[in-house]
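[AMINO ACID CHAIN]
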Amino acid sequence: MDLPQSQLLSMVLSGRKGLIVGIANENSIAYGCARVFRNLGAELGVTWLNEKARPYVEPLARSLPATIAMPLDVEQPGQMEAVFAAIKEKWGRLDFALHSIAFAPRQDLHGRVVESSREGFARAMDISCHSFVRMAALAEPLMDRGGSLLTMSYLGAAEVVAHYGVMGPVKAALEASVRYLAAELGPRAIRVNAVSPGPIQTRAAAPAGRDRGRRHLLRLPRERRRESHHRRHPLRRRRFPHPRVRFP
């Protein structure tokens, strides 16, 4: 008997295991992706940045529900390795991972690139770009049946966008890294892609009255503020060469 198309779609990711990195609040792009993955049948693991972010992310992890939920600050030695060790112990494999994190110091983000600090540039590159390369290295052994690695890019990687500062070169480096990872991991049936989801409001809604706007934004945790900055320009999708593969 043929199943309805809606029922077939709901089974697309049934039995698949996926890691979601970058949820900051209920409006996060990463959380929107996680909900879709879960609705398609995937079992998920979710991370939060630190103890300050945990009260915002942990209830969302429970709502999915996520079978793995733990902290991940990519600047802290050993935390990413601990996440993948938990995945290996709990699941034994990984089918897909979503990387949706980015950061640059405020002065480098809003200033001129020519005046960016050495420390700020290096930190933005480590958190926003090289962390994805590290994630790919840890995911590769767990994707022995193929898989998919996704990261979030932005229009500023290819065009000059006002007030995007040092994140433009950093996102360009991320896209170049995706191309190389796609070529290197493609023979193992691992897809690697960067996507730009378009203009999405990821800040929490401001309360009515005088507290709207900047004063409300300053009360949000830093990790919630910094994620919202990069998501406000027209849709642009980046495609990278890799072999066409399917999950077995």
Observations:
- The chain has nine helices and seven strands.
- The CA atoms of residues 68 and 90 lie 8 Å apart.
- Residues 206-248 have pLDDT under 50 and may be disordered.
- The two ends are 23 Å apart (CA to CA).
